[in-house]
Amino acid sequence: MRTTTLPKGHGGQRHASARRLRGLYPSLQRPEKLIRRENTMEVMRPTLIRIGGRIYRKHHIREKAHQHEEEEEFYADLGDGADEPCDAFVIEETERGYRCAVDVPSPLYKYIIGKKGETKKRLETETRTAISIPKPGAEGEIVITGQHRSGIISARTRIDVLVESFRKKQPFTHFLSFALNQPAIQEKFLQFKKEVLEKCSNDCGVSSSLFQNPAKLHMTLGTLVLLNEQEIQKAQELLQKCKEEFADAIAGGKPLTVEVAGIEYMNDDPAMMDVLYAKVTMKDGSNRLQQIADRLMDRFLTSGLMLKEWDRVKLHATVMNTLFRRDPSADEQSTATTSKSFKGRESFDGRNIMKLFENFYFGDVLLNSVYLSQRFSTDSSGYYATSGQLTFS
Question: In whole angstroms, what is the distance from residue 93 CA to residue 146 CA?
Fold first, then answer.
């Protein structure tokens, strides 16, 4: 192959020639450059984790993978921590150095310990600290001790990052809800179910197994991961603060009258529905219910007890869900969460249901309480067991 050497000062032409050669001869590509570029992007745009109002960068450590390994290795990029402010937690000075205690729910201990204790050992080695963790299943404080304050700060911050990251992977345990299971609403819902099955049972995927349990009709405002009694207590206290700070003022000290009417579906194809829900609006046309729902979500997000699913709460009550067919106990699932994982789920053809029942009227309801509802539970009324509540009157 004939080549031409370009003189100095013609860098642009030289690069253009190189691009043409690579286009003609793909084998001349240099994949190692692409790899280095990808690695550079990981460094320049790492995953960000917010803890206690501060943001940390999450860096993945590439290690040999272990089969069935549960832990994911990463660390907080904080250097030696010497200049890191620690106003988010308390460090005590002792006769032997420094000490810091952190409350961590027992289900998360294993992520700090790691496979065969490797994560804990690495944390201790890299921060020059000793980390004491309660026995599995025993609630208590994780205690960090060491001779250097900077090491305590680094170890504590890395533990916070581990806890925050693995908390997001836990299934939710509770959810904030408005109960919509008043007798009149249940009666209209059963009428809706009966008429849908009479008129649409021949449509693909439509069957009685898709329908919500009438005793558990509700609106979900957001889901929470509460892993011990202390976190449940924290959620209860936050509900009461919300009542005092804004809920009473917005509701005016009275129950909210809402209308449950009309149906809508979650995804964009009525022939392949996974969730069908009833729409919920204020009877007086105001947005007070939306205000309360959004502000509750904001306060619980800020507290770290709730994970963000949407920019604002979608006011709805699930009436049909393909998850119910596979697992009737899935009725406490957040439709906001499950609808995101539509790919691979069962579906049903809801075109006729929408055509015949688009404006179906389920009734009016007086909403007087927001419940901290327990997942996988049932109380004496058939609704979810309650861990706490906020009342408007």
Answer: 10
